[in-house]
Amino acid sequence: MRYDLDGEAPFKSFGTDAIHAGQEPEKWDSRSVVPLIGLSTTFKQESPGVLRHDKYEYSRGGNPTRECLEECVAKIENGKHALAYASGLAATMSMVEALLENGDHAVTGDDLYGGTNRYFNKVASKHGVEFTMVDVRNPDNVVAAIKPNTKMVWFELMSNPLLRIGDVKTIAEKVHAVNKDIVVCVDNTFLSSYNARPLDLGADVVMHSATKYMNGHSDVVMGLLAMKSDELKKKLMFAQFAIGAVPSAFDCYLVNRGLKTLHVRMQRHGENGLACAKFLESHDRVAGVSYPGLPSHPQHEVFKTIARSCSGMVVFYIKGGLQEAKTFLASLKVFTLAESLGGFESLAEHPAIMTHASVPEDQRKVLGISDTFIRLSVGLEDEADLLADLDQALKAALPTV
Ligand code: P1T
């Protein structure tokens, strides 16, 4: 399914860019078509402090393999710069370190990955940064929470785990109208660069846990930030170097390789995700389904204006209680019971016990992350096998309805 985003001009040549941007064989003496893995931690200088081509001094600050990846990400985000980190949370921490000081304030979405919630409210808050969490489905909630010392707005375009939509365009416009210096950062992990481009919608920074769709093969933990502003890049690059939470050259090589098939993978993730969501919606053992690509999603119309298609993330409530949810998860054969998402393989998990256990119980209750709430990351397997697996596991959990 592809939504019509003004003729899709913003995503023109996505596949070509993902394959070629930053990968010029002329970069290497060997004319290698595939970027080389530069393992050297240090680089010979022409004379003290003088670097050839003015780059590469020590690998924490920059590395040729990382540079290939960062250039490619900048291009597919339609940004100017991108920076890679040792994990999604390392990228998040670097944003906070670069932009916020003791006494500053940030407004965040109230539905966030459990680890992000924990980092903001249990770690960064210890250093004197204040966070206000709001329901970003209504952009006015974000504006109402802004204070004179607000420096950053952070939300997930498609939230983890509830799949709520943050209307980047409206939020960025309204926030910047109040104070153009507030940095609007959008975590686009659940959709990937292929499905939505927050920078084109007015966000200042887009963040990814590249551990998920961007790499797509469940074998690298990495974070990415992309931006258009030179000034922001300078601040973030300083923090990247000063903190040192950088990825290895080998991991950069792998994520760069993953990006080469991102457009192809995301199309199949979207088709399979939609098929599973529709199947669950019509299933008599299911109490409710949420998938922004379905017209039944309360924000489907706004979603279509900011994303060109949906991913493989589907959530639903199983009928019964905790035991039925556990039996369902234990009965799956094609889906694997595990945390994480966005890889080629289908995963299923129980957010209340697993990925979002660190969210305080009362907050989980308000949000609806209950005992019967299940999250699927629908992979690239054959649709019929995925639907049959869901069907048999639902019937194993609830033999009668
Ligand atoms: O795991 P890491 O690469 O550090 O990324 C953290 C992160 C940030 N943002 C979002 C939206 C995420 O989903 C994550 C990580 N999420 C999982 C591990 C998960 O299973 O939801």
From TrEMBL:
SUPFAM superfamilies: PLP-dependent transferases. Its EC number is 4.4.1.1, 4.4.1.2. GO terms for cellular component: cytoplasm. Keywords: Amino-acid biosynthesis, Cysteine biosynthesis, Pyridoxal phosphate. Coiled coil: none annotated. Pfam families: Cys_Met_Meta_PP. It comes from the Eukaryota. The keyword Methyltransferase does not apply. Its cofactor is pyridoxal 5'-phosphate. It is an enzyme of class 4 (lyase). The modification N6-(pyridoxal phosphate)lysine is found at residue 212. GO terms for molecular function: cystathionine gamma-lyase activity; homocysteine desulfhydrase activity; pyridoxal phosphate binding. One of its GO terms (biological process) is cysteine biosynthetic process via cystathionine. It catalyses: L-selenocystathionine + H2O = L-selenocysteine + 2-oxobutanoate + NH4(+); L-homocysteine + H2O = 2-oxobutanoate + hydrogen sulfide + NH4(+) + H(+); L,L-cystathionine + H2O = 2-oxobutanoate + L-cysteine + NH4(+); L-homoserine = 2-oxobutanoate + NH4(+). CDD domains: CGS_like. Pathway: Amino-acid biosynthesis; L-cysteine biosynthesis; L-cysteine from L-homocysteine and L-serine: step 2/2. Belongs to the trans-sulfuration enzymes family. Homotetramer. Interacts with CALM in a calcium-dependent manner. This is Cystathionine gamma-lyase. It comes from Oikopleura dioica. The lineage of its organism: Eukaryota, Metazoa, Chordata, Tunicata, Appendicularia.
